[in-house]
Design brief:
The protein is an all-alpha fold. The protein has 2 domains: 10-151; 169-275, no CATH class. It has 13 helices and no strands. The protein has helices at residues 2-12, 14-21, 23-42, 47-77, 83-112, 118-151, 161-164, 169-172, 178-195, 201-205, 217-222, 239-245, 264-275. Helix 4 (47-77) packs antiparallel against helix 5, helix 5 (83-112) packs antiparallel against helix 6 (118-151) and helix 9 packs across helix 13. The longest helix has 34 residues, at 118-151.
């Protein structure tokens, strides 16, 4: 029972669930590559080997999809502090989104090996080696960026700054300014998990996300292509509020699909924050 309870707790935590699932695409990509090589040596004649390879590729596509979905939820729960970490996350995310499709391609190629014509079967086995091997390398690169997020930038790990560095501990104590405390408790988590993923200096430098950087107060006030995102003291005049409400003509509600829009409570918190002067810690 303890094992089941621990498994349920792990599954309920977005980042731990992603960590649990992320190994399956890696393992299945390696297995499918080895099986594809075995098929090539056999020229696709062994029916049992074809079936095993096909099932491995199907599993790879399913595991890739589940991992990509869990990664999106883990990203929403993460707190990204630096532009470098955000750029690393963007690269990891873009690579991870392709994994289910690559798994589907491997499945389709291996399925061609079931064709009775020897020429098509042999060609499919050779293509299977290329597809499965290339997918394995792609997933390895994706995992590399994921490893950097955890071990270099500490994304998804417990914060230890206050215990390991006494010089920074006072800064982490609750502020006596209620506006700062409100920002820390209500606004910063929203910006970190729902806004900075796309609106950060790395994406702005590449000309994306409307050239709006939301990682600092100054960049929010400066705004992007559409002008200032925040007008302190005036939520109704702030483009950020209009975006999250979906009030801007010919524009998607922020955050864009497939992410869920902000809740009414989150929008109300941002409105209050701007009304109080958009203070920033």
């Amino acid at each position: 029972m303890e094992f089941i309870r621990a498994l349920e707790q792990t599954w309920a935590h977005p980042q731990m669930r992603h960590a649990m699932l992320v190994h399956w695409p890696i393992v299945l990509s390696i297995v499918s590559s080895l099986l594809a090589v075995a098929m090539a040596f056999n020229r696709g004649k062994n029916a049992q080997l074809r079936w095993i390879t096909l099932l491995a590729c199907v599993g790879l596509a399913i595991a890739g999809y589940m991992t990509e979905q869990s990664g999106s939820r883990a990203e929403d729960a993460a707190s990204i502090q630096s532009p470098e970490a955000q750029a690393n996350l963007n690269e990891h995310e873009e690579l991870g989104e392709k994994v289910p499709f690559l798994g589907a391609i491997c499945t389709a190629v291996i399925a061609l090996a079931f064709v009775r014509k020897p020429a098509i079967r042999v060609a499919a086995t050779c293509l299977g080696v290329v597809a499965c091997g290339g997918t394995s390398l792609w997933i390895a690169n994706t995992a590399h960026y994921g490893g950097l997020l955890v071990y270099r930038y500490g994304v998804g790990t417990p914060a230890t700054a206050s215990s390991s560095n006494p010089d920074t501990a006072p800064a982490l104590e609750a502020s006596s300014d209620p506006k700062i405390a409100f920002f820390r408790e209500h606004i910063k988590p929203i910006l970190s998990s729902r806004c900075m993923t796309c609106h950060n200096s790395a994406r702005v430098a590449s000309g994306r996300s409307g050239k709006l950087d939301q990682t600092t107060r100054d960049t929010l006030l400066a705004g992007g292509r559409s002008g200032p995102a925040v007008v302190p003291g005036k939520p109704e005049d702030s483009l950020l509020i209009k975006r999250v409400r979906g009030e801007v003509p010919d524009s998607d509600t922020m955050p864009p699909p497939p992410k869920d829009p902000l809740t009414p409570e989150q929008i109300a918190a941002i409105e209050q924050w701007i009304r109080d002067g958009a203070v920033w810690e």
